[in-house]
Amino acid sequence: xxxxxTFTQSINKPIQFFMAVLVYIxxxxxxxxxxxxxxxxxxxxxxxxxxxxxxxxxxMIISLFAVLFGTVLGFVLYLLRxxxxxxxxxxxxxxxxxxxxxxLLVLVFITSFFIGEAxxxxxxxxxxxIALTAYIGPYMANMFKGAIESIDPQQxxxxxxxxxxxxxxxxxIILPQIAIRxxxxxxxxxxxxxxxxxxxxxxxxxxxxYAIKIIQSKTYAYSEGYLVLxxxxxxxxxxxxxxxxxxxxxxxxxxxxx
Amino acid sequence: xxxxxxxxTKYYDKKVLDDISIDIDGYSAVAIIGLSGCGKSTLxxxxxxxxxxxxxxxxxNDWKSTKETKREYQxxxxxxxxxxxxxxxxxxxxNITVILEKVKGQSKEEAEARAEELLNMLHLHDEMDKxxxxxxxxxxxxxxxxxxxxxxxxxxxxxxxxxxLDPILTHEVLMEIKHLKSMGKDFIFVTHELNFVKNFxxxxxxxxxxxxAEHGETNILNNPSTDKLKAFMKNVSYD
Lengths: 258, 239
What we know:
Chain A is built from ten helices and no strands.
């Protein structure tokens, strides 16, 4: 139920929000003053802004590709798991269980240092994207399962009666309906991918974390480096969260069915 | 319309239809009635070719319902369900054109013209570009009737087409169904609306505990000859 906001209530909210932000800033300032009291200067980091930009771009590209391929992999895993051929079903199930139980850092190591090595392939960017894709795929498979199962079974009866082929069912009826439902998990996974891509620094991929490490070793501006690093991730993930909230509110409107 | 059902038996965990046989010819609206759980909806699903009996045969006109002929058999039929079952992400018009254009391979123009013609006929001119959630239950059900007619079936199968509607919307849907009958369509349907059966059906099949307890032209409802139909009429008559 909506009640009309009074003037004090409406002005209170932003102020209270700002106060909450201040508490955190104060805490961070306290830590910085304790650790690096004398020579704190963010500008030292931005002497290398070219490298930072490059790294920022790489992080975004790697994450976007990982989510894109991860979504495709997730859909394929979903289809395999629904397969009547037990071999395919098992293959998908084993992949999903193993990947969900593996820490991303381990996956990055294995992909780059062993699997890449075995195939004489050493393009660390691509191997990094493969590792992230393999990590995200199983989660997307579960998202597809949930979204597709939320479709009323009666719709399948209707599709059968009118002679839809398997492809036509997915192309015209199922995927368009779940597309909007899939957006929030997709955004969440993009956020995971961006954060997870920081682990690729172990294989010397020039993403944000790796770039900051380099800058720190050159400038000795350690606390500044971590602060910039942290803010850089937040600068990407917070807008994503806001976008996600917006999409969810639109989705509610869309699914407002009597 | 000709209906020929020979020794049809259907069981899931227990027997639902027990050796049912009936031959009728020359009626255009056949109602299947009975208490909940008597097997009438199962019989309708078998007639629809959605499921198949463990024993016996079903012929409608010259079409035989078997697993092998399912596609051709169902092409002759139109289906209206208890819920409208429209695809929620498509407009009323797209609910029809997706079938005609994408599945049946008609041209876009042909499919749209047919969809508009049908939706106009069912008085949905102003609603055809709305999604199912944005129209009333009666309008959605009328759109599902339009969709059922889109493939030009001569026979419509209806499973409680008004069960989820209030009395006013029920009336609105039933008027359209009557209109279709006057245009020469045939119907096989299950319903709880006894008044509609009396007004609309010309043949009634009364099912009780998986068997046909009584059948005949609609006036058997006024003069039931079996105790079971007598009891049924006494229990369900609201008027």
